[in-house]
Amino acid sequence: MRRSSVMNPSVSWRAASRGLVLLLCGLGFIQCVAAREVRPEEAGVEGDAMRQAGVLLARMAEAVRSLSYEGTLVYLHQNRLETLSLDHRVEQGQVEERLISLSGPIRAVARAKDRVMCVLPDGHPISVERAGGSRFLDTEGIDPDALDEHYRVEMLGSARIAGRETEVVGIIPKDDLRYGYRFHIDRDSALPLKSDLIDRDQEPLEQLMFTSISLQPSEGPVPEMAGPSMRGAPATSSTSQWRFDAAPAGFKLVMQHEMKQPDGSIIEHFLFTDRLSSYSVYIEPGVEDGLDGVANIGAVHAAGRKLDGHRVIAVGEVPLETVRAAIAGAYRVAASDRGKP
What we know:
- Helices cover 15% and strands 42% of the residues.
- It is mainly beta and 341 residues long.
- The chain has an eleven-stranded antiparallel beta sheet, with helices on one face.
């Protein structure tokens, strides 16, 4: 249950502060394993647990996409506790979603077919095009088999959340370049009732939990999938003037596009993923102000620098070391080499 970082990163960074706001508008093991012999019976048990976890994760993604539900959630981050109301409706094959903050400043997000409307604490609304099928509970495309190199997928027992029985699945990072998740998946509906963003030691960085939830009748057909998830997109090579050497281990470039701004300038956007976590790199020409160094809001980190008359910024729900490495490897190629891999 990725929270879309409370709102998914889908828009560019014109300056450090605006980028972080819009990003929020939208969540030793290897050596030990190698050192001991795994008995056949242990391998069988581990294989069964992996298959069980895979089945639960697939059911969870389908439930989030196809069911209508509403409930109250609590969101814990940076020692702050916020209360949210979520109304998720499936009607005639379309998803409509409304998220309202019930504590602190008034904030709201409404998602319809192709738009996302955000109301920020100052009351100023922002409307942006909705990219892909991203929802508040973003669970699409999690494939345990594709995560094996950099994550462990484990069954972590059971727990009771919002008065309902859940099975707990952990996706645990094997290094410090990415975060993982701990999902509490409802046995009956398969909805994720609690999600923890965790580090490699399974320490929670952010927690999101339903305190009450009710299923609602859906009208019409189940929404079609919006196409392959970015988590499963094939790796690609940059065809622009920009290249990226020594990307953080496991992260591959899967998408690039240009975004024309009202003043006519072009921002280039590059998306990297390790099939679970992701970060974006935004490159804009001739920007004097903006992020030069590092910044963060909770588990969302950003790093920026000037390079060849451009501002290069990496941002994502990943550790600081990851975005630092992302901008360190960026460089510009000569015009004669553009279009080459």
